[in-house]
Amino acid sequence: MMGKMQFKIVSLIVVALVYCVQANAQNMQKGKKIYEAKCLACHQADGGGVPNMNAPLDAASNVVGKDIARLVRIIRYGYNERIALDGFYYSNAMTASPDLKDNEIADLLTYIRNSWSNKASAVTIAQVQAAKKKQ
Amino acid sequence: MYKLSNLLLACVFAFSVNAQENAGLRLPAGFSATLFADQIGTARHIAINDKGVLFAKLNNANKAGQSIVRMEDANGDGIAEKISGWGKYGGTGIFVKGNQLYASSDDAVYLYQLDANGEVTNPTAPKTIIQNLHSRRQHASKSITLDPQGNIYVNIGAYSNACQEKDRSVGSKGMMPCPILDSAGGVWKFDGKKENQSYAEGKRYATGLRNVIGLDWNNQTNSLFVTQHGRDQLNTFYPTMYTDAQNADLPAETMYEMKEGDDAGWPYVYYDPFQKKKILSPEYGGDGKLEGGKNALDPLVAFPAHMAPMALLFYKGNQFPAKYKEGAFISFHGSWNRAPLPQEGYFVAFVPFKNGKPAGEWEIFANGFAGADNNKSPRGAKARPCGLAEGPDGSLYVSDDSKGAIFKISFNK
């Protein structure tokens, strides 16, 4: 038998879980929109990038890795160097996006890290802000 | 039930055999193709000697640690059975003139000696013909060709998209004049025999070319022809001026005949194949309609945008039907900057020529490189056409720089 108090707690957890999942779907949707507007041209609809030029995001070790701060900085500041990734080199400049807000970068990274074959943790606004402070 | 499953098996078998017919390529009637070699590495340009020995320059050294691969089909079945290689540096350009083999890295051109059997005699000690060319990541590959006098022409691609103050950045203006053009963004001419040349010994032969990967000397006109990769991302940086659909079609990929001193207009203008005009680049104050580049060349041929012409070859042989004689084959790597619209290219095109001038519309010659499922994403494409070479018997070879296939296309009547 479940007591009233226990029932309340369980309900609260259920509501919280549903809310989280919904928020996640919402974040994914927002991230997708930003991806399509700012990233897809180079990184492609399949996240596969362009050999030798634009790095892939799908199945890329850095993208699903733990260094969120680095990913945030790449999006915010871009870079202008040849990079090595998973045994291949990519030569095009990465465009900076100084206009993206912290929550937008969080949504975008959450989307990228959970699209195509990628499965990694969602990125929070706090993680984006932490990355900014480091720079 | 037994019969049905047999029938199904037969169908599957027939289909899989069929899929491999002509090495998976779709060709005009009367042509056939074989998979001459496969998985040799990132095969960029290819060249062939007068005995039919084929050489490929790899973009990166392959698993065997070779960056120039030699392929020989001794028994004439259309498949190379003798495959070897040498060289450690990646690059794109390769050219054979008699017993001399030129190969390029992204900043130099080397010269090797071949013996009577087409075997390299100095694999680890080539002569350095040209060195210290700019190699700044973007458009760094060096394509080469020679004229009959032995001068060598080298493309030095612009290390930029549109010569913005900050490359590929929203709102960054085009630099005026573009400082890149003094040492890149054009074709340079050098002596094919002199060693250790660089900018000081060479000459800027033609300018205003963002990135030329395909180039060939035309013996009929006795002049250099090139194909240019047009600029990217009009919609990304100027979304109020260009829609995604417009960017997918702008600007044209272009072919020019370049005489000494000619200017093709990059970065100040791009070619709009619909208005048939040179349009002022938005980085330089253009709005999609304003014209510019008064002194710049108009292209001889305009191809659809972003398809990336990788090699240009004027057909000199007699094996193919008469319409191909002296015409131009162009390999198209396949686009990426048409996204979100479907990608295009991944084929070899043909432009008929008469008296050294285009004499008709361009057409697709060989298609199906991307694969039977028509996957035209750069990553998903089965093969991406890159180098072209014409064998002594008039067959056409096409290289693929993604997985390293070499296709041999012949006409069988």
How would you characterize this protein structure?
The complex is a heterodimer of chains A (135) and B (413). Chain A has 135 residues and is mainly alpha-helical. Chain A has a single domain, classed as Cytochrome c-like domain (Cytochrome Bc1 Complex, Chain D, domain 2, Orthogonal Bundle). Chain A has 4 helices and 2 strands. In chain A, α1 crosses α3, α2 packs across α4 and α3 crosses α4. The termini of chain A are far apart. Chain B has a single domain, classed as 6 Propeller (Neuraminidase), CATH 2.120.10. Helix content of chain B is 7%, strand content 33%. Chain B contains 3 helices and 28 strands. In chain B, strands 1-28-27-26 form a 4-stranded antiparallel β-sheet, with no helix packed on it. Chains A and B meet through α1 of A and loops of B.
The CATH homologous superfamily of chain A is called Cytochrome c-like domain
Question: What CATH architecture of chain B would you give?
Answer: 6 Propeller
Which strand order does the major sheet of chain B show? Answer: 1-28-27-26
Low-confidence stretches of chain B: 1-5, 7-19
Sheet having the most strands of chain B:
4 strands, antiparallel
Supply the CATH architecture of chain A. Orthogonal Bundle
Distance between the termini of chain B: 43 Å
Question: What is the mean pLDDT of chain A?
Answer: 88
Rg of chain B (C-alpha, Å): 21 Å
Strand percentage of chain A lies at under 5%
The first-level CATH class of chain B is given as Mainly Beta
- Largest protein-protein interface: A-B, 25 and 21 residues
What is the count of structural domains of chain B? Answer: 1
Number of domains of chain A: 1
The unreliable regions of chain A are none
